[in-house]
Amino acid sequence: MRLSLVFSMLILLPLATGVHAWLFCRENLPVLTQEAVSRLKTAGVRNPIVEVRFFDVAISGEAPDPVARQQALAAIRRLVPLRLQPGADRLHVVASLKAKLEQNTLQISGWLPQGNEVTNVQRLLSELRPDLELRTEDLRTAPEVRWPEGIRPPLTAGNAMLKPILDILRVPAELHIIAKNDSFVLSGLLATAELKEELVATLAEIAGTRVVDPSALKASPHVLSAAFAKPALLAAFVRAFFNAPPPRSFDIKSDGIPHLEGIATRQMESAWLALLRPITGAAKVDARFTLVPSVYHFPGYQVQSKLSPDTLEPLREPLRSLALVFDAGSARIPPQEQTKLATLAPRLLAAGPALGLVIGAHPDPAGPERVEKDIGKARAEAVLSFLIDQGVPAADVSAVVFDPVPVGSPSAPSIPRSVELLIK
Questions:
Q1: How is domain 174-291 classified at the CATH fold level?
Q2: DSSP assignments along 293-345, one per residue
Q3: Sign of the C-alpha dihedral, residues 15, 17, 20, 22?
Q4: H or E stretch including 135?
């Protein structure tokens, strides 16, 4: 009797265990599985999958970062009676990049797989926006980080992971050039290094002893293209504009409106605007020039005469104070002005042909331009003829008409319809 009871128990025990296991799986495992999924979601895991076999659990999904991954694993290990076996953890972190741009600082954060991609991202962004300070201390790597589907290293400017960052970094082109007495300073952003090199080379041709400083001018393929970025045409304008004495400046942005400042003659202004027209089209030019009658009137103009300073200095004051005034509409030298020239002639004769003179007539800005130019030329030639009659050598003497300057300008002649003598 007892032996048959023992045999019956041995037969029924596995059956009862199986029934109990079946009932546990039917009643409790779905609840435990749902709890495991809930804990993973609470930890920030995306697309969580939980597989439970009796008390063994396997999990997979995408954690936002390694910290969240560890929190998810800890939550599953606390879920009794389930057991997370080694190798059953298939949670991973998807590589991510975030950017925050504040003024001139670009802050990059996120997670990347282990390797050299942090260095690659630093290099790439520095090339695209060399004008920004790049901060990457919050861009980290970890072994559990994987690349998103379809992304393979190395990251490039055309990569989908970088596109949101690059979109906020695209900036309009701009160019600024300042000419000082001792240097040319370039700054701004250009789309190509070729244009930058062309401008630097152009200024180097006319720099002489002045320094060309392009350190603040950056070139990046991520700069938006600009209508003014025409290398040959822009270089031709820069050469002409900055070949004139300093100080002067040129600024232009993506709106295509050029801003010019400096000293100029009317002829220079016209020539520069003609060079700008193919570059900027119909854009209005913001020209803020201090107009002077000629290059000889530029502040700090250095005379080219070969005479020694000892010979030149005694002539400077008499010439500076000389203004030959003509009657309206007449090119005849008035008697009192002839007396002034006759008194000056011996000094000019003593200086000899190496002196170099410019006889310049100031047209009346209130009169018709063509008429004033013609009569101004006649007045200058009349003075030249008078000096030649006095014996002054004409080897290096020029008779010209200066550009008109509006009345009230700092460099306007004190008396219209006058002629002055300047040392070249």
A1: hypothetical protein tt1634 (3.40.1520)
A2: SSGGGSTTPPP---S-HHHHHHHHHHHHT--EE--TT--SPPHHHHHHHHHHH
A3: negative
A4: strand 133-142
The distance from CA 308 to its chain's CA centroid, rounded to whole angstroms, is: 46
pLDDT digits (tens, 9 = 90+) for 352-364: 888 889 999 999 8
Whether the Cβ atoms of residue 324 and residue 333 lie closer than 8 Å to each other: yes
Is residue 278 reached through a cis peptide bond, with omega within 30 degrees of 0 on the bond before it? no
Q: What is the DSSP string of 178-237?
A: EE-SSEEEEEEEES-HHHHHHHHHHHHHH-TTSEEEEEEEEE-TTBPP-TT--HHHHHHH
The single-letter DSSP state of residue 362 is: -
Task: Give me the CATH code for the 2-91 domain, please.
Answer: 3.40.1520
- β-partners of residue 358 are 398, 422
Spatial distance between the Cα atoms of 255 and 204, rounded to a whole number of angstroms: 28
Residue among 377, 343, 345, 346 nearest 360 (CA): 377
Structure tokens at 38: 């809930």
Residues 27-60 have pLDDT tens digits of 567 888 888 889 889 989 999 998 888 778 888 9
Phi and psi, residue 300, nearest 5°: 75, 15
Write out the CATH class of domain 296-423: alpha beta
- 41-75: buried (b, 16+ CB within 10 Å) or exposed (e) per residue? eebbbeebebebeeeebbbbbbbebbebbebbbeb
User: Residues 388, 392, 394, CA angle at the centre, nearest 5°?
Assistant: 70
Cis omega before residue 154 (within 30°)?
yes
Q: How confident is the model at residue 22 (pLDDT cuts 50, 70, 90)?
A: very low
On whether the pTM is more than 0.70, the answer is no
**Mean of the pLDDT values across residues 222-248?**
93
Give CATH 3.40.1520.20 domain extents, the chain. 174-291
